[in-house]
Amino acid sequence: MSITFLIKNTVSSFSKAEIEIANYTLDNLEKIKFLNSSELAKNIGVSQSTIIKFIKKIGLNKYSDFKIRVTEELTLNKNNENKNYIYSGISNSDDMKVISKKLLQNNQDAIASTLNNINITDLETAIDLISNSRKIILLGVGASSLVCKDLAHKLNKIGKLVFHDLDSHIQLSYISTLTSQDLVIAISQTGLSNEVLVGVTEASRLDAKILSITGSSQNKLAKLADITFLSIANEDIFRSSAISSRMAQLSIIDLLFLGVIKNNYKQSEKAILDSRSLLKELKV
Question: What is the pTM of this model?
Answer without folding.
Answer: 0.76
